[in-house]
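Dear support,

I submitted the protein below through the web form. The confirmation email said the job was done, but the results page showed an empty box. After a refresh the structure appeared. I'm attaching both so you can tell me whether what I see now is the final result or a partial one.
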Amino acid sequence: MHYTYEDISRMIDHSLLKPTLTFSDFEIGCRMAMVFKAASVCIQPHYLPRCAQILKGSGVKASTVIGFPHGGHATTVKVAEARQALADGGEELDLVCNLSRVLSGDWDYVRQDIEAVIAVTHAAGQKVKVIFENCYLADQHKIRLCEICSELKADWVKTSTGYGTGGATMDDLRLMRKYADPNVQVKAAGGVRDMDSLLQCREIGVTRIGASVTQAMLDECRLRLKLEPIHFDADVVSEGY
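What the results page shows now:
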């Protein structure tokens, strides 16, 4: 499989969502994502304004989560979160669907919930990834969510938050790629931690993955492509913060 470094680096959304991360961790993560040319940084919402400030003009998108991690927020709250994130410089919003409503078969609510966030985000010219949390769902739920997201013109469908009982599986990615409209991209999150897994995702048609081990994966990518390593000193960033 032929690929360039940026073919791979621009697949990765660098995840900075662990609840115990500090300001120093956020600063280092944003700077690293810039240096390694990731697709985006997906950061805790409270730090999004600073993230957007750091990434401005770099080509790396500032992104955050909505309704995270269980999707149980009222729709009005999700819309308020989305509006705040957009005001704070968010360019891509990762929205958790309402798992309780999905499992209860309340598809009208699920559709309206997703549609409300997509509408406000698209009106601002930005993009939405809809998170399913597949570890809790049957195939019938995943398929119906793909259909709804296709009808609503979501930008991506996404496997997982990374905080459920399981992450992305190749079977789920194949299913999502099959049932989502060709114009809807697929994102894998949770468990994609090395180049071999990333390349397997890419072969299926996945365009983004969420990762917290971004630097290690891209170091491996450069090694395989026989490129000079990128020297990034986290201690220097930390000291300068």
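Response: this is the final, complete result; the empty box was a page-load delay. The beta strands are 12-16, 40-43, 61-66, 92-96, 127-131, 156-158, 185-189, 208-211.
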